[in-house]
Amino acid sequence: MHYSRMLTAALATGLSMASPIAIEKRTGYAVDDFLILNYALTLEYLERKFYQEGLANYTQADFVAAGFPDPFYTNLQEIAADEKVHVDFIAGAITAAGGKPVNEATYSFPSTDPKSFVALSSALEGVGVSAYLGAAASIVEKDYLTAAGSILSVEARHSSYIRAALSSSPFPLAFDTPLGFTEVFSLAAAFITGFAPEDPPLPFKAFPTLTPAPIPAYYVAGKTPITFPGAKTAFPSDAPLYVAFFSGLKPYILPVTITGEDYSVVIPEGIAGQVYVVLTNHATSATDETIIAGPAIIEAYPDGKTPAAPAPARA
Question: Widest CA span of the chain, in angstroms?
Answer without folding.
Answer: 57
